[in-house]
Amino acid sequence: MSNKTVAVIEGDDASPEAVKPVIELIDSLNLGIDWIYPPVGEPGEEKYGSTFPDEAKEMIDSADTTFFGSASSKATFALLHLRWGKQTYANVRPSKWIPGYHSNLADPSGIDFVIVRENLEDMYLMAEGDVEDLAPLNMISRLHKKKLEDLGKGKFAIKVITEERTKQVAKFAFELAQRRKCKGYQGKVTISSKYNMMPKSDGLFMEVAGEVGKDFPDIKCETILIDNLAHQFVVAPKSFDVVLLPNLYGDILSDECAGLVGGLGLAPSGNFGHDYAYFEPVHGTAPDIVGQNIINPTATLLSATMMLDYLGFKDEASRVEKAMAAVYAKGHVLTPDQGGRAKTTEFIDAVKQELR
Ligand code: ATP
Questions:
Q1: What pLDDT score was predicted for residue 245?
Q2: What pLDDT digit, counting tens, does each position of 276-294 carry?
């Protein structure tokens, strides 16, 4: 296999403390990966006077993928490029409990599902404004029986669900369920939204995704209201396989699901388009623990194994996951969020030991 190039954005606050040792670990596998570092955020500002200079964009575009630590608002333009520029329409967020993860649930064993979140539209269009500007639309709130502009001084946000995007992400979710079924999973997609209150927008999501499901007769398809889903995640988390959600609900509920298995430090993600993907932990920059070398690198490491899988290094991805699982199973070298006293780098060293 020819060398692969990975663009690395280390992120801000405590994020580089997780990203650096994870890259070191992956690099020690000698897979022939070239790591390049686009000047995004402060480095870009210092060298080129921009948080996302052309040089950074070119490096990201030339790479096979991007590995993105959690970043502050200074990396916003890079993130916009990776998501909307590269059209990475499917955000994949697995929730899998393994022995040793410190979940608050009495019995988390068997939790193993994946949220597929639509990544490009819904409430994330950044299209907001003043309520009074809605007057030309001449729309009436069916609930208040009032013109929108007469509701009072305030702001609005636009939610858009399109057929095209919903089809795209639904197909991705059903194909993922098929691949998982081959590995012994249920072969089920659960589709959810608030289709009773938003029958047009959220209703369209359900309708289009359900139609896509008909092309996958081997995969079960169930629908559930989003509030019930939030409840079911807590009371029956083992019943899920692939869960397909619009952008906002997917963003919010995946943090809940990270909580189910043991916290944000354990939740990885991948963002997939047709010809590009980037990988990042679900958590933020953890500014409250910066400089202490205690950030849990598990989410970052699992994002890296998702990336290895994407790059074609499937066996190596599985080797790293097994080594990490062995560290959790032994339970001697865990970071404070998992009830241990180990430093970030000690945890990574323990994983390296298991790889030997
Ligand atoms: P941001 O604004 O970047 O989202 P935040 O503090 O609002 O930052 P997170 O960074 O996700 O949100 O952190 C939420 C809490 O979870 C913090 O107390 C943080 O220390 C903790 N946390 C997040 N990720 C990890 C991790 N990998 N290891 C340990 N603790 C973490």
A1: 98
A2: 999 999 999 999 999 999 9
Distance 340 CA to ligand 1 centre (A): 17
Residue list, ligand 1 pocket, CB within 6 Å: 70, 264-265, 283-289, 295-296, 299, 337
What CATH class is the domain 1-91+266-356? alpha beta
The rounded Å distance from CA 190 to ligand 1 centre is 28
Closest protein CA for atom 14 of ligand 1: 286
Nearest to 232 by CA among 122, 113, 82: 113
Query: For 26-65, how does the pLDDT look when each residue is reduced to its tens digit (9 = 90+)?
Result: 999 999 999 999 999 999 999 999 999 999 999 999 999 9
> Domain limits of the chain?
1-91+266-356, 103-122+160-261, 126-158
Question: What's the mean pLDDT in 164-172?
Answer: 98
Best residue among 17, 79, 264 to mutate for probing ligand 1, ranked by most atoms within 8 Å of CB = 264
Q: What is the pTM of this model?
A: 0.95
Are residues 190 and 224 in contact, defined by beta-carbon separation less than 8 angstroms? yes
CATH number for the domain running over 103-122+160-261: 3.40.50
User: What is the rounded CA–CA span in Å between residue 327 and residue 100?
Assistant: 8
